[in-house]
Amino acid sequence: MNTKRERSEVSLSLSGGRLAVATAGAPVAVPPGAAAPASRRSRSRLRWRPLGLVSAAYLVALTVASLSAGWWAPIDPERQDLAHALAGPSAAHWLGTDRLGRDVLIRLLLGGRITLVSVVEAVVVFAVLGIGLGVVSGYFGGWVDRTIGWLSDLLLALPGIIVLLMVLSVFPGETLATMVVLGVISCPLLLRVTRGVTMAVRQELYVRAARLSGLTPLRVMWRHILPRLAGPIIVQVFLFAATAVLVQGALSFLGLSAPETQGPSWGNMVGEAAAVTGQDGWLAVPTGGIIALTVLALGLLGDAVHDAAVDRTRSAAALPTRPARPAGPRHGSSPTAPPGPAQHPALLSVRGLTVAFDLPGGPLTAVRDVSFDVSPGECIGIVGESGSGKTVTARSLLGLLPPHGRVTGGCARFDGLDLTALPERQLRAVRGSRIALINQEPMSGLDPSFRVGSQLAEVVRRHRHVGRAQARAKAVELLATVRLPEPEQVARRYPHELSGGMAQRVSIALALAGDPALLIADEPTTALDVTIQAEILALLRDLRSRLGTAVILVTHDWGVLADVCDRAVVMYAGEVVEQAAVTDLYRAPRHPYTQLLLRANPHVAPVGDALPTIAGTVPAPSEWPAGCRFRPRCPYAEDVCGSQAIPLVDVGSDRTTRCIRSEQVGTR
Amino acid sequence: MTHGQFLLEVRDLVVHYGHGRRRAPTTAVDEVSLCIAAGQTVALVGASGSGKSTVGNAVLGLTPAASGTVTFAGEDITHAPPGRRRALTRDIQAVFQDPYGSLNPSRTIRQTLVEPLLAHRGVEPVPARAAVSEALRSVGLTEDVADRYPAEFSGGQRQRVAIARALMVRPRLIVCDEPTSALDLSIQAQVLNLLRQLQRDRGVSYLFITHDLAIVRHIAHRIVVLRRGRVVETGTTGQVCEAPEHPYTRALLAAAPVPDPVAQRARREAYEAAAVQR
């Protein structure tokens, strides 16, 4: 599975209750195999490994001993020794003797043959029918699925024990028939699991792509679907094998299958032990014990094999070399080159912010030395590609870094508080009320089971001490603030009744509930259509002018940046590369990256010839080059660019760039 | 063309969704017609929910058509049986939006790339190894990537692999469903250039599905604009982009912000003025 694409959800409780602003974080710089679930998984594998090995060894030994007992057994299992009937363990009889003085160990091993063969018969039927029908049912759907589903419901509705008794009355004492029927009537358990997983896997894009490659359904199932089923199948099969041991034992105990006349079996030996419990309690220990041990071993082995199988597929899949888009980097100017003279005292002042992720191989810096200021009412855009660190930067301001991330340097002053050093309790008080977050996925912040109005009212009550009715009125007022037509009526709707654009307006209303001085909008329009995007951007501009809220807009879209922002912080590979007022930035970019990216933009590139491109790809944090991080892709690069860390330099008023050749960039 | 003027002809295509017994089906695509000549690119443009991907799926045979016809090289393939469909994959291939999901993470690049050959064994005698390295070269990758797993590659590289897979059987038509929208700006241009170059070299046709009119200008010969499952405008790229006739096309063009604050302010004011009139 691709750890990069799994959107991790960080949800931040604004109100302690059900109301939460959830942030659908882009997967953040997950280092190779460092995903939390994977490490948990490997720990559990370690825990299971010895038990799994012991179980496997026990089962193998039991199988070998049982199947070969006929050849090597030193004692005839039927040889009676009435003088030593019901004896306890001794050197001659390791597990004692039964009431006819026969050796219990040898009889158990011989009896094991019947059990093992029965289990194999039942499991084969169970697996073939369960997997086969389940995959076919899930893959083809439609009437095939309905027919198979109907049959499996029918089988599940049959009382299993009665069916088995009927079979035994037709084939008295016939183990094979019983076990085949047991496999058939149990197969719906496996069938349902495989059907469910198949239906899910079938939706995967790569399965669709394989079909479009022209593979036959059988090949698609074999190559792409079956490997994904391994985990659930293994668990079900081992559980069923344990069940088969018990069922076979029970029937044999009742004398219905493998009666004593056909030789020893575990079931009839337990029966015999039960008959003599009054005289000798020991006999029940080895006979019952072997059944219990075998059932236990099957269960433990199933777990171990499942974990190992899942691990293998994961480790093949989870080796991203590129850090999944580290959430946006914050842009800032370095302490050495503070952003231009601020006319107003800054609302937020970020200095030298550095964020690292703790990976198994040591800490990895995802964002380095970011500094910038946000004045009251100002809109700053943090722009960059995936992996540039723009989201990480924005998230770190709210203390919403993903699990392995932490701020390792710098500070972020807001209202006289250093956000990066604030304990979680105080940070929670700032979040939502003074600084609010707007997400890319509007729905992720809304609870599907509550009406929009009541969710909003709850957040309002969280921030102000007002009564229910007042909170309710304020909620409707907020919905009107975000320009939703008929706010009263919208308040009564559930989130699923909203369109994407309306949902984003509602989540903006949620963010405004605490009258924040600063809104952090993380790709707020990326999931929306272009016409809806224009409306939301218009709303953001409108809110700024009406409420005077400052905005940090995290985006990858240079058009969005140009549309709403006053100033831009351009990030590349975890660093700020350029910072300028947007009009200056677009008119005359002073960093090669900005310049080339703007040229490659299909909006402005001339039609006809090949589009201008930037060679290469955005490097992963582990592959960031020394010196200038853009150097390998830069047409202006010289030797000196690689030999030293490039500082941010002032190039005009309130303008910085991280390029020592910015003069040439400006003139070309 | 021996079979007619166009490589692909879609006529009055209707696709329904939701075949419930109680609910009436929703019409996702309503009487859509479009034609693609050999070596041409037709862009299918619209917002999400406009039915643009559904048209692509109907052409690929992934979604059944309720009525209308899909004709490929003179052959009516609207209701082609599964066997014929599989044979058609020699000529019609697809590249999807999400390069992360479209490659099986547990199979190497080579295993993924030979799949189309497996399906058409006997038809394509080229040894698989040579075919894989040729396909990788044609998308600008080297052969040594073949034995690695998709997780080792960036989005742009994976999209190149997905394109290489489509090229394995030398198709005549590739349905590209938002092939660049998951990619970074600096990578997007590389992939668009690659698609154009492949068209020049091999004469392949594209049905290019996208929501982004800005990239359409660079890749498409003709544009079909969809809204709520219906075609609202169709024409050459120049006509549609420079002189859009339908108000919806105008809105789509005007709503996308351009990366230039001064120009964008003017556009925005014009757009908002137009919106007030609407």
Automatic annotation (TrEMBL), chain A:
<feature type="transmembrane region" description="Helical">
    <location>
        <begin position="176"/>
        <end position="193"/>
    </location>
</feature>
<feature type="transmembrane region" description="Helical">
    <location>
        <begin position="50"/>
        <end position="73"/>
    </location>
</feature>
<comment type="similarity">
    <text>Belongs to the ABC transporter superfamily.</text>
</comment>
<keyword id="KW-1003">Cell membrane</keyword>
<dbReference type="InterPro" id="IPR027417">
    <property type="entry name" value="P-loop_NTPase"/>
</dbReference>
<dbReference type="InterPro" id="IPR003593">
    <property type="entry name" value="AAA+_ATPase"/>
</dbReference>
<feature type="region of interest" description="Disordered">
    <location>
        <begin position="315"/>
        <end position="345"/>
    </location>
</feature>
<feature type="transmembrane region" description="Helical">
    <location>
        <begin position="229"/>
        <end position="251"/>
    </location>
</feature>
<dbReference type="InterPro" id="IPR000515">
    <property type="entry name" value="MetI-like"/>
</dbReference>
<dbReference type="Pfam" id="PF08352">
    <property type="entry name" value="oligo_HPY"/>
</dbReference>
<feature type="transmembrane region" description="Helical">
    <location>
        <begin position="114"/>
        <end position="136"/>
    </location>
</feature>
<keyword id="KW-0472">Membrane</keyword>
<keyword id="KW-0812">Transmembrane</keyword>
<feature type="domain" description="ABC transmembrane type-1">
    <location>
        <begin position="112"/>
        <end position="302"/>
    </location>
</feature>
<feature type="domain" description="ABC transporter">
    <location>
        <begin position="350"/>
        <end position="598"/>
    </location>
</feature>
<keyword id="KW-0067">ATP-binding</keyword>
<keyword id="KW-0547">Nucleotide-binding</keyword>
<comment type="similarity">
    <text>Belongs to the binding-protein-dependent transport system permease family.</text>
</comment>
<dbReference type="InterPro" id="IPR017871">
    <property type="entry name" value="ABC_transporter-like_CS"/>
</dbReference>
<dbReference type="InterPro" id="IPR013563">
    <property type="entry name" value="Oligopep_ABC_C"/>
</dbReference>
<protein>
    <submittedName>
        <fullName>Dipeptide/oligopeptide/nickel ABC transporter permease/ATP-binding protein</fullName>
    </submittedName>
</protein>
<feature type="transmembrane region" description="Helical">
    <location>
        <begin position="148"/>
        <end position="170"/>
    </location>
</feature>
Automatic annotation (TrEMBL), chain B:
<dbReference type="Pfam" id="PF08352">
    <property type="entry name" value="oligo_HPY"/>
</dbReference>
<dbReference type="Pfam" id="PF00005">
    <property type="entry name" value="ABC_tran"/>
</dbReference>
<dbReference type="InterPro" id="IPR027417">
    <property type="entry name" value="P-loop_NTPase"/>
</dbReference>
<comment type="similarity">
    <text>Belongs to the ABC transporter superfamily.</text>
</comment>
<keyword id="KW-0067">ATP-binding</keyword>
<dbReference type="GO" id="GO:0005524">
    <property type="term" value="F:ATP binding"/>
</dbReference>
<keyword id="KW-0547">Nucleotide-binding</keyword>
<dbReference type="InterPro" id="IPR013563">
    <property type="entry name" value="Oligopep_ABC_C"/>
</dbReference>
<dbReference type="InterPro" id="IPR017871">
    <property type="entry name" value="ABC_transporter-like_CS"/>
</dbReference>
<feature type="domain" description="ABC transporter">
    <location>
        <begin position="8"/>
        <end position="253"/>
    </location>
</feature>
<keyword id="KW-0813">Transport</keyword>
<dbReference type="InterPro" id="IPR050319">
    <property type="entry name" value="ABC_transp_ATP-bind"/>
</dbReference>
<protein>
    <submittedName>
        <fullName>ATP-binding cassette domain-containing protein</fullName>
    </submittedName>
</protein>
<dbReference type="InterPro" id="IPR003593">
    <property type="entry name" value="AAA+_ATPase"/>
</dbReference>
<dbReference type="InterPro" id="IPR003439">
    <property type="entry name" value="ABC_transporter-like_ATP-bd"/>
</dbReference>
